[in-house]
Amino acid sequence: MKNIFITTPIYYVNDVPHIGHSYTTIIADVLSRYQRLLGNNVFFLTGTDEHGQKIEKSAEQRGLQPRELVDSVVLRYKELWEKLNISYDYFVRTTDEQHKRIVQEVFQKIYEKGYIYLGNYEGLYCSPCESYFTATQAVEGKCPDCGRDLVLLQEEAFFFKLSAFQDKLLAYIKQNEQFVLPHTRKNEVVSFIEQGLEDLCISRSSISWGIEVPELGIELKNKHYIYVWFDALLNYITAIQYMENEKVFQQHWPAYVQLIGKDILKFHCIIWPAMLMALDLELPEHVFGHGFIYQGGEKMSKSKGNVLDPNKIIEEYSVDAFRYYITREIVFGLDGTYSDVNMRQRYNSDLANDFGNLLNRTLSMMGRYFEFKVGKSNEAQLSEAELILKKEVHDLEIRIRQNMQDFKLSIVLEDIFSVIRKANKYIEDNMPWKLYKEEQIDKLSNIMIQLLETIKVVTTWLSPFMPQTAQKVYEQLNISWQEKNLYNWGYFKEGMLLNKPEPLFPRKE
Ligand SMILES: [Zn+2]
Description:
By secondary structure, the protein is α/β, with parallel strands linked by helices.
């Protein structure tokens, strides 16, 4: 049994949850459920990023205290995760006392190690982005990220000595091929580091909605608050009680995979690893930067008004259909598109026709021919052609294990559905109805058992992607969810009773 720590980014509560947040979180959930299926000890962390000037301002605009605003948005996230069946183990909030306390302890520790120092910062500042830019980074005097006006600001500030980690970081990324994934993103990170890393300003005195810089025993002109990104990144170790509970921390760290969107690559593949190096901590095994989901060829954004509400898709097609679409249709790592036409097609062809139908016709035949009672099994009587499904199912496991390790989720689903289609063809080829007429009951029973085993195994491999559906299939097959190793062949024994079929995915016209 391995300890597996999986994280999503913590989401900024200036925005309500949309399809992009759902995407990352569903993937993290699939990976977590898969690892649990293998018997590993998973700790799945998600949460919210709640500090910073943007929050302070938008609370003010709404006549709220920042705390009231963040509490209400956090609720929206938690509700959506419940709806999407997200099985997180811990929900971290950057306003949690534990988080704030540990962030201050870490700040002090890095300061004492000499990687944080007090200096003077002058730069072009974008207030909505809460970022400073150099003159070369600015695009015609405007913010390179959002295009808004930049203002020249100067302040006493703390700096993180990012430049000290440039060579070490570069060497690490080059030596550890699997650290930044997919590999195209690795190249992006490498070329960015090669341009040279500058020290990073990590405190603000212009804001007050944040974590105060701890008492360091030095004279300061102003009260300083910790830069929101520095605060936020630390959630990955404050949540597992770094510096406070060594046993818990050692059990989980380093993370197995940290999932992020490609827009926050620099933070997670440069700043975050450098912070870990400053603390003498190991780096996560993988940081995976996934692509964006577009609609009609455009990136979704609030200003374009084309943001997809996951709630609507769930209402129309079911939670599992949405989870399936997002993991099957979008190649993990690349950009993808949401389209209702594709969604409908996947739903009707893959889920209703292929999978739903396989279960339905198999159980119907079991009812008709065996009154839902599993018959005798004698594989020795089956010919090579009749055993073909068992071999397919066996080979499937080998491919799934490899592809899940490589985070090729859409290929895993493609493989599973290919076996489902083969099982449907197996029915056509073996014509159980003919065997029944000819009263070849032993052979018929054998073939039905091959089908039942296949359905049980593919359902189990599908369960990380579609947990609710797996539950329904198990119920119809009269199998307890608690049973172990359901991905192994050889569950059904003579005399076991099955339940009546119920449609899993009613067709949408
Ligand atoms: Zn900006």
